[in-house]
Amino acid sequence: MAQVLAGLGTSHVPVIGRTLKAGTQAEVGFKPFYDRFEAVKAWAETQKPTVAVVIYNDHGLNFFLDHMPTFALGVATDYRPADEGFGEPVPRIFQGAPDLGWHMVNSLIADDFDISTCRKMELDHACTTALDLIWGADSVPPVAIIPVVINAVQPPFPKPSRCLAFGCALGKAIRSYTKDARVLMIGSGGLSHELGQFGKINQPFDLMCMDKIVGEPEALAAYDNDQIVDLAGAQGVELMTWLVMRGALASTRPDVLASIYHAPISHTGGAMMLMSDSQS
């Protein structure tokens, strides 16, 4: 039977990946962010997940303003990163998990989530950064991946409450899969930031989110998107990726295995949290 091992929430601002690629983590002001990921690496080495479901917002490689699904899920056999304006990425192939992916699609539709299904997707930094933080820059991680894209680009956005419910449906779908799979849920995005307004970081709001996401995610789901934009910036709605990740965990109050908040990382309130799903 498949099980959800844990949920990881992390920021994905591009400078994180570029610094990792350059090997200059020890030289930057946000070095503590990388240091704390050593605990995540140790967890992955011990627990050995076989699938990573990466929840993120696409930055124009697959979807743009003329076609923007609310929720989309990849069912391809493999995936490749593509140039998103920073130059051609190092070629690498990420293994997909199409059988589990199709099972999730069918389960989601049965639960009234009319998911967009993608037989081909290109990966941007929002998907690959978390994987590189765990398994190394430009690496091919020892897990299959299932990309899950959420519209955090063009209004109307899905409501935070809908995102939490979507995460619950994802977790239910995974746990009903009868084949073996050890799944790590990754919510990639946030926390507070806004492009074009450098420094629009709301540390008290970010820290409140990190507190509530553990045992009271419904308190975050009670916000509407206009409130989140006012409090956390236009790109602060990426919090929805953390809500989906958290919704997929069966535990009412998961154990926090590692956590850090560091501001700023570039123009972002940088954050990471790893939560064990002991009841999955």
Automatic annotation (TrEMBL):
GO molecular function term, any single one: ferrous iron binding
Domain of life: Bacteria
InterPro entries: Xdiol_dOase_suB
Matches recorded under Pfam families: LigB
Keyword annotations: Dioxygenase, Oxidoreductase
Domain Extradiol ring-cleavage dioxygenase class III enzyme subunit B: 8-260
Protein name as catalogued: Protocatechuate 3,4-dioxygenase
Provenance organism: Novosphingobium umbonatum
